[in-house]
Amino acid sequence: MENPRSVIVKKVLSRGPLSINSLMTVLRSEFAEEFSDVSKNKIKKVYLKNLKNFGHVKPLVNRPEAILADTLAESAAAEDLADSKADESQAVAGKKKKGKKATKVKLTVAEVDNNWSWALNPNLMDKYTNMTVEEARTPTSVIIDAINSEKLKSKDFWTGKTSTPHDWKAALKDKNMKTSL
């Protein structure tokens, strides 16, 4: 069963990609009662990680360092090509090549938080954009209980307890309730 907090996170991400810091700001300002005791670390390591594993959200890189990393990769490829040509000449001469150190771009935690954004899967965009906040706050167990209670009423007809048929989907739609998750 899905946690209402996860649904709220997806509802907020349906507006567009957000960094973790801006996501936390929106969640704490608009949904204070649900997210007042939730840390940024828990949002990252629990909710976003689980939603990513289920394929509901995906991380996006929107940092200028990505361009720098691509440039470093291109220059490293050029160096490797030059090294391979030098290796061929050293192999002929019988010399061994010394290993070289890799160049890394180091980012601080704040830079990672601000430069990675999270986006909702495009397949789920319509569902969560059109969802009301009240629907997002409704726990899944309440929806399932309502569906099961209406289904039991329709089973009564088939077991002979009542003489009138009961359409559980129509009954839930009349009450403006969900008929499925």
Provide a short characterization of the protein structure.
It contains ten helices and three strands, in the order αβαααβααβαααα. It starts with a helix and ends in a 7-residue tail after the last helix.
Q: For the residues shown, what is the average pLDDT?
A: 74
Separation, N- and C-terminal Cα atoms: 9 Å
Query: Secondary-structure element sequence?
Result: HEHHHEHHEHHHH
What is the CATH top level name of the largest domain? Mainly Alpha
Computed Rg: 27 Å
| Structural class by SSE content | mainly alpha
Main sheet attributes: strand count, strand direction, barrel closure: 3 strands, antiparallel
Find the count of extended strands (DSSP E, 2+ residues): 3
- The helix fraction, in percent, is 55-70%
Report the CATH superfamily of the largest domain. Winged helix-like DNA-binding domain superfamily/Winged helix DNA-binding domain
* Oligomer class: single chain
Binned strand content:
5-15%
Number of helices: 10
Domain count, please report it.
3
Indicate the low-confidence ranges by residue numbers: none
Shape: elongated
Strand order of the largest sheet: 1-3-2
Per CATH, the architecture of the largest domain is Orthogonal Bundle
The CATH topology of the largest domain corresponds to Arc Repressor Mutant, subunit A
